[in-house]
Amino acid sequence: MRSANATAGFHAVKALPEGMAASIRMASVPPHLRTLFANLPSAMSFEASVVPTAIPTTVRQLIKLATSGGGCRLESVAVVEHAAQMQVVVLRGTRRHTLQGAVLEADITAAVRELLVALFRPEELPELLEELASQTSTMATLQSVTRHMLQATDIDRALAIMMSGVTAGYSLGFNRAMLFSYDHQTRTAAGVRAVGPDSDAEAHAVWERIESEDKTFEDLIRDHDALAHEGALQQRVRRMSMVLPEAAGDDELVTAMHAEAPLLLRRAVPVNPLLAELKCSGEIVVAPLRAARRTMGILVADNRYSALPVTKTRLRLLQLFGDQAALVWENLELVKELESLARFDVLTGVLTRREFDIRCKDELARSARHGHTCGLLIIDVDRFKELNDTRGHEAGDVALRALGEVLRETLRETDLVGRYGGDEFVVCLPDVQAPDIRHAAERLGRASRLRGLSLSMGGAHFPRDCQDPAKLITLADAQLYRAKREGRGRACLSDALDAVVY
Fold first, then answer.
1. Less CB within 10 Å around the terminal CB: N or C of the chain?
2. What is the pLDDT of residue 460?
3. At 161, which CATH number?
């Protein structure tokens, strides 16, 4: 969305003849000059007079720069008949300077330098340089934050890095930052993470530690313990949750959901109960974090302890940072969804064959290495093909979902359960004795009967049935065929154990 300044400039250019307007729109303005003018301590207004036949490149660049918003505003563009009348008048407060003649034919850098010298008093330049140096440092840190977020392997660490970027003195430097996720279906804002002190005493202790340790931002990011630390503020935020009202009213979080940019609010006592509980007061920044698909969450930041004012530059950088962070957040969620699809069977909720094979191989290797016991069950739904043929695949899916629930609810959390394909399932039972396999099969068989399912199972035990745990699957598979031959609805575990009929 264009700012008011940019919109006014856009209409001023649009009012020109199409050829002139197109030549201005096509002008290329160096990025560092855009950054410079966006961070001016006070706005500049431009008034241009141009000839229709040939507009010098520098003039076109200045006009386009004035339409970029930020610290610039294009007031008007007038068409004149003679080149000698062509000029660009720039106003800053009570100061006024006119660019004309040779400087308009030179490089735009020369024109900008002339403007800075003419419109800024010598004592103002240190402030401008300080602001630009601060932004350079902040941008470098934000780039580092984004890089580390992209390298993070899980969402929680990525969000911890993001929040450190919001609060670190090298970066945006807010005293506190609180992040709430947002669920569109339930309109629920839930606390996810917080960084910062929860009291004045803690704030001073944190600042003293930071100064004494003199760590760089890269040091802070590499400090895994610091990122994982859950202070009092973090613990409070994680417990917070509320359903946001449909109408915004004065609620700060709801208002932020409809805002295009971070909001700077001044509140003695916030309307939103979550913010009130966090004792946010004075200047509060509430920023929506939006990715391509949806609003991921709401970021709240303040300077509760230092009471430093929030500058326009900080707000603009927070929006830039928030947009990048939201994209990383969304991408990591997509990766998590894809990993879940690769690891878990969508229909039954148990492990896929590939994931089961990987985990089971590791478990069998552990058993062989440390001399631990291990059991294995192979499970088949009796007459499953007949069910599909007579009642349809939907009925078959219902049966498989029911079996998935039985397996997840009946077995231990340490047991591995996978779908090998069709109606065949495999269970790895670490650290069990042979009778324990029998008891597990009996529980599964009875629970399945209650859901209208008949199962055939084959089982084997290491080291009772074999000296190599890798042979368990082959042995269990043979026992499964024995269970089917002997009438189904039973589990055959080994020649040394009786079949379990349920």
1. N
2. 94
3. 3.30.450.40
